[in-house]
Every structure is written in C-alpha cells, then in structure tokens.
C-alpha cells in the first residue's frame, strides 16, 4: 500500500533498515521530506482578512480581542537571545490571556512542550488532544518562505510533520500550524495536496489576527463538528465504544489486546451505502497507514458493523479503506466492479470482496462555488466562497491552477467484506506461501496491479475459498480497456504485440496514452525494469514484485541463514537512491549461489531458488536473451513446492521484527554492546614464560639451490633491451614468501659485496655459504620457514635456477655463458665493487 512514486525522487521511509533510521535526525529521511514539500507550500496572494474568511470558514463573528497589555512585547526575540526556548513560556502566557473572552467550552489551553518527543500517531494524551501547534523561531530571518535554504527546508518539514500528526490522530481533513519568526508570524493551512500560508504579519502589534484564527477554529461552519477541519462522518470513539470494540475483538481474535496507543485509535465511521442509507462502523484496529502527508494518505481499518441500536456481532466484521484519490485517476472501485462482472457477481478467488464505497468529494463538488475578484489589473483571482467540509483538497489548485485535475484529491471510503491478516502475521511459512500463491492466481483477469506490496497482499484465514488475496487497485491498469479505447482487439495477443512495439518507448508526459508508463508502486518491491526507466508496466513486472515481497518477509520474520542476519534486509531494500536499488537487486538475482536460505526449511528454500532462477532473464542483459516470466510458470513453481509430498515445518510462525540498532554493525558488535570490558593479559616484562614466534633457519642446501645452479638444458640466455643476459625466474608464491626472500637478500648484502663479480660461480657460492653461516645466528629471525622458502624455488627441476645479481653488475666479465641471471634493480647494490 503506497503512493505513486515520482521518478528519481525519494519519499519518506516507510520501512526502516535499523533503529538509527527511525530517528527524526535521520538525514536521508529529512531529504525525502524536503523533496516532498518542494513547491507544495505557497503564500496566499491576498490579504490576511480574505485568508481567514476563505481558509478558516466560520459563520460566527469573533468578539473583541481580550486586552493582553505588553505580554506579547515581553516575548524575547532576536539573534541576541541564546536559546529559542526562552520564548516558550512568555508565549504561553500571552496566548492564554488572548482567549479569555472565548466561552469556557471553546477556550484553548496552551502548553509548553519544549521539544518533547510525541510518538506518531496515537500517543495517549498527546496528538489526540492537540488542535493547533505554534512553532517558534528567534529571528525574522528564520521565516522559511523568504528563500530556499537547508535551514528553511527543515523548518517547513517541522511544520508539515506537526500538521500530519494532528490530521492522522484525529481524522481531520486539514489542519493549521502557526509559525512564529521573531516579531512576525504566518498561519499555514495543510491538506493532503499542499499548504497555503498567510503573508507575514506583526503578531505582537496585531494580536487580534491570532485571536480571530482561534475563534474561527472552534466555530466551524459545518454542523456537527467541534473544530474546523473535522470530518462530520467520523468521530473519535467514546469510552463505551472502546469497551464494545474490545469485547467484540476478543471473540474473533483472543490474542488481540488493546494497548495505550491503539486504544485511542477506535473511532466511529458513517458511510453511505449503495441504496443511499447510512451505515455505521466501529473501527478498532488500524491495519495499515501511509505516513506521507502529501499523498493518497491511505488508512486501512478493521471494523464492526453497528446496527441501529449501536450493537454488533463478531460476524459483522469488515475492512474500511480511506484514501485521498487524485481527480485524474480511474477510481479503484471501477476495477472491483469489472472483476465482479467477469464472475457474474460471485466471489473471485484471491481478490477481496467489494461491498460498497463513497466518494465524499462529490459533496464538495456540488456545493463549491467560485467568485472572481480582481487581484491586480492584469489577472483575476479565483477564491472559494464556500469550501463546505473539505473533502476536496484546495492547495493543489492554489499552487498550480492548470494542473487541478492532477494535483487535487478527493476523499474516498471503500468497504470490503473479506477480512485478512497481514502477511507478517503468518502462523507458519507454508501459510505465507499459500497466501502468495492464491494472490498470484487471482492475477489473471486482464488487470495490471502495479503496486504489489506488503499491505496489498493479505492472508485469508476465515475464508474457505482461498488462503490469500490481493487488494488496493489504486494504481491498477486494465489493458483490455486500453486496447478497446484505442480501437484494438482486447486480446492477450494484441496486448503483447503492443508492448513489444511501444512498451519501451520513452514516456510522453503530455500523451494520455502513456499515463500507464508512470513509475508506480513501492520502491522496495519494484521490478528491476521499472526501477531503471518509465516503461509499460506489464505482468512480468508484477510477478517479479511478488518475489521481492517474499524475500522481504523472509528476511524480517524468519530465522534465515543470510550472513548479514538482521542487516540483510536493509542491505538489499533500504538504499538511498534508485540506482543502488537496481544494482543490488540485479546482483542478488544473478548470484551464482542462492543468496537466501532458511535452515531446516527445504521447501521454502526450493521456492526461493526456483523463483529467483525464473527471474534471471526477466530484464535485458548483455548477450543474454530476455525471457519474461509468465503467470503459469510462477504458479507451477508454487504448486510444486506446495505439493502433498513436500515437507514443511510446523510452528515456524512469524518472528517479531526488531530492527538492529545500526545495520552497519556486525553481529559480533551487536552481541558485545552493553557488555563490560575485560582486562588484558600480563605484560611481557612481568613473566619469563612469554613465547615469541621465530622463523626457522634455512638448511645450507636450500640456500645453495636458491642462489645458483648449472643450466642443464644449455639454452642460450635471453637478451634484454640493453643486451644483458636475463631470464625470468619463479618468485615466491605468496606475499609472505616475498617478504622473507627480500629480508634474506638484504641481510646478506654486505657479505656478498665483498666478492668480486668476476669470481667463478663455485667460489662465489661457497663464499655466500660461509657468509650465511657466519651470520646465521644474528639473522635467523629474518629467515622464512622451510615450506615457504621451498615454494620460491622453481618447480621444474629441469630448468636452472638463476643467480640473483645486482642489475648494474650483470654485464661484466664474471658472467659465464650457460647461466641465467635475474636482473633485479635493488637499493642494496654494492657500488664499491664496480
């Protein structure tokens, strides 16, 4: 379950590789947020009065502002102040005095949180009760709307996160945040398409602007709402409703226990049914959340259907999906209806059963009216006369009026009968594989899903027809509809022909026919071809996504045998850019050995390896023909490993995923964390029993064999470029032998320098032997082991071993015919004998 991915653009991380990446200071996540809000926050082009009338709708005029005296002037501002925290308490005091004229039941209470961490999204007594956030900075130059800087980006991200948290925790349609920058301020209105802010105003000299905002905020135009931005069809659960949800949930899932966080997630949702009647649901469990603000912001709830008396039974359990769909996209419900038509309304194996849905944006479309007002002599400013509830976003049009249908979003709710469990809750690995198999089997109805991910494939435990199913057709594409629309026969042959001829052509952003080439889905599970470029999304790409989904689940929730252990998931999936994701997946598939196995689970290992091998030719490679995987081929692989004669372990349920503290730490480092340090051993000066390694002494014959021998094959020596006799000799076979050889030559260089280069070979060899014997005691620590030294000699005894002479002394009278000489430049040449 994810939102459309913009090419080559990061999105805030949904799956973190380790605990360090979950922190707010995570640099990569901050960059992703900065890219997401880029060009999404704009200043309102009219004055503040019009902003409050249009952006904070209320029909109740505010009373006179309570006198605040010099409280706002007492707020310390400017660069000379050491810490911005000194502004907090004076601001709380001034705001508290400002709202004294408001009725007690609508009077805000202000608190100084002083950078206190508040867990997203449902922390008890925190975001659930926060209506408005004031973000304070010391100086006017801290205003993030002046120019684009890293610091200003971080300020906007902080504002966006606060708005996101309020909207999710309270099911708001839009939210407000106030930014204080020294002596000036701005009011920001956030929805899921962007944000609109006021021009700068002097809040200390004009506190009535802040007063009017606070008054309007709690006197909304929409009936049944306590605050502007609330959804009249949703409200937070009461204590009695939370108790009811708990009793019903125990009957269907005894293991489910409410926690301090999920207890506050219970809410009452009203949806218009197919016959026009109102149906009430009690949502008690949040199955999935998309944490991005400027997105489709998908939420998936498990809920009970309530009767007219507010009661329900465990059998009345449903799935409610809330999303903000782009106006230019095909509605997800259309795909469900097409699938049901092909089966004459019967349940489709491997597909969630659709009941009804409601496009809440239609309510605002009927009531939204426009008026034209002159903003200057050259253009007209269109403003909203009545926004109604806010089921349609407005920030997208405000930021770019020409792209309204692509930027604006409409709030939708869909009700599904099929209730599933997340893949990460499998009771055994066989159940996981069976769920994936049935989801793949359903994938054969002329629809390309384009977002195979963890939240879109579920386990069906209470359904006898199938073990798993697929859902969420937000980004799906019907190739049959596409072919009909373009006058082609809606057959698989026609579609394959079109993909071969036009599928890899560059995507034309201005051509509606290329809309299905946009890169969509969750980057973790995208096929390699889709990661590489924007091309036609075909069936083989979705099938490859099923493989990455399986690997992801195995790496996080089983006792697999990958050498990186917990760090393996982050190493493969949680990477910084698209190119790294592509190369890492490419190397994983083409590995000569199976990169992932689960000890004691031969059936799962067979599936992982066969699935991987089937995908090795699923994308273009050098000198390798492309062979796309097919639906039947992948199904056959699953059926083989699920055959009755295959043995699967029992009781290997999903393990809870606890991310490593830092995925760059090795397993040994993780094990040693927080353990006390041990003391060292005794120093060598305190014991006489210390043993030190020594290199063995050479045998005399070894040395003679090394320094020279008669050439038995009588071949003429080779001449180098200078005319000197030279012959290549075998050197040491490893670095250690090379080290000892060099040390030995250096230690005997003085003794060899006393010999004349014209001496006969035998005399010179004898002299070297004597020199070696005389210095053996002093240099035995420098000599290598016999086994290592023997490796340095020529293996073929038929070839002579060359003498080692200084390169500058080789071409002299002492060089005898029939001998080979190793011409080696050396810093240890004896120039005195020349």
Descriptive report:
- The chain has four domains: 39-217, no CATH class; 232-419, no CATH class; 427-678, Transferase(Phosphotransferase) domain 1 (Transferase(Phosphotransferase), domain 1); 700-833, no CATH class.
- It is 31% helix and 14% strand.
- The chain has a seven-stranded antiparallel beta sheet.
- The termini are far apart.
What is this structure's SSE topology?
Layout: H1 27-37, E1 41-43, H2 48-55, H3 88-98, E2 133-137, H4 150-170, E3 175-181, E4 184-190, E5 195-197, E6 201-202, H5 207-217, E7 234-236, H6 239-252, E8 267-272, E9 278-289, E10 299-306, E11 317-326, H7 332-342, E12 354-359, H8 361-367, E13 369-374, E14 380-386, H9 395-399, H10 404-407, E15 409-416, E16 421-422, H11 429-442, E17 447-448, E18 457-459, E19 468-470, E20 477-478, H12 479-485, H13 492-502, H14 528-532, H15 539-557, H16 567-572, H17 578-589, H18 602-614, H19 631-641, H20 667-672, H21 700-707, E21 718-719, E22 725-726, H22 735-747, H23 749-753, H24 761-779, H25 786-790, E23 803-806, E24 821-824
Parallel strand pairs: 1-5, 2-3, 23-24
Antiparallel strand pairs: 3-4, 4-5, 4-6, 7-8, 8-9, 9-10, 10-11, 11-15, 12-15, 13-14, 16-18, 17-20, 18-19, 21-22
Helix pairs in contact: 1-4, 11-19, 18-19
